[in-house]
Amino acid sequence: xxxxxxxxxxxxxxxxxxxxxxxxxxxxxxxxxxxxxxxxxxxxxxxxxxxxxxxxxxxxxxxxxxxxxxxxxxxxxxxxxxxxxxxxxxxxxxxxxxxxxxxxxxxxxxxxxxxxxxxxxxxxxxxxxxxxxxxxxxxxxxxxxxxxxxxxxxxxxxxxxxxxxxxxxxxxxxxxxxxxxxxxxxxxxxxxxxxxxxxxxxxxxxxxxxxxxxxxxxxxxxxxxxxxxxxxxxxxxxxxxxxxxxxxxxxxxxxxxxxxxxxxxxxxxxxxxxxxxxxxxxxxxxxxxxxxxxxxxxxxxxxxxxxxxxxxxxxxxxxxxxxxxxxxxxxxxxxxxxxxxxxxxxxxxxxxxxxxxxxxxxxxxxxxxxxxxxxxxxxxxxxxxxxxxxxxxxxxxxxxxxxxxxxxxxxxxxxxxxxxxxxxxxxxxxxxxxxxxxxxxxxxxxxxxxxxxxxxxxxxxxxxxxxxxxxxxxxx
Length: 476
Known about the structure:
alpha/beta; four-stranded antiparallel beta sheet; ABC-type oligopeptide transporter activity
């Protein structure tokens, strides 16, 4: 711009006109794009999108760790990539963004961008000098590069803020280093009991972040292989914190946790989690089909059949509502974004009603599922894991809170029947019908274990457990 202002008049005005002519013509020219929709019928591509959303959404992270599903996601994504083959995945914009318009508009656009030197020579043939040619060439190059940069940015990014946030997320992910180191030992070891996992806490204290409150305080306990253990206590007593430490979602602030008489930190965390079937209180639905939700986390060596899936669904008491879904076990619970449109509220012209109908025809609706149905589906996933992996520990953390009493009893009975070769820890508010089956009851209050023993022992002691049990019996 400085070089242009130094030119004599009228050369200065002509060059300045070239600077502003192209944006003005581009603004006045009718758009050569139109509204469009895009969707895919490729099953492998749809699955890849689901797995991508699953792997990179923070909301699923804890659930995936508890299910030991990281390797499963990788293997399934790799399999879908192979099935997709060499198909090129391209954006639909080029086909909708190159429509033919009146010839004179393209002529004016090209004239103001690509032909300034010719026009200049026609207007000022006697003033054409090397410096003028250089000025025009620089102007042409700068305008062209700026146009391309802005065009590419507008096509591939929603906003500068979004672009910066994505860049920050990427660099944070690359630079992140886990504070939890894996031990060298595999699990189960040769000394592990065939009856199930042995668990010991030794003066364990847990404090989250900078909180001044201890989630767990001086917890010491032992759970023998194959025991059925009930953990009871009011809300906020530390039950869930205790159980998540076993799955090593975090490390204790103080103290030590032992698995089969060896420190938990000495084991490979993935091996330990692969031996645990963990059913949380608030399970999540994954952006996949019902069938894939039930099977997620299974090792690739497991041969999955419809019969095995239906058996797990039956144990989780969810066959009835699955049969009512539009596509049964193949119903997509949370459809991925494999369909979209490019009409931008009419920016690209009038949108036909036929195009809108086509979008509605291919767009899958999210299936509405109640809290109880989510818990049934998560229970089916847990049973699938128990039935077809070497599970040494089953943890059920208030995972039946949204179920009616009969369904809760049926699911807990299925867990009880699957006890062989497994240690089992149950947390439930309605525990009175399980107390006589329990080998040990752990009663917690304010982050501490206040009582341990059998039902009869704790009732005779008349302490905190007796109060909870009597209150439940009276309200039943």
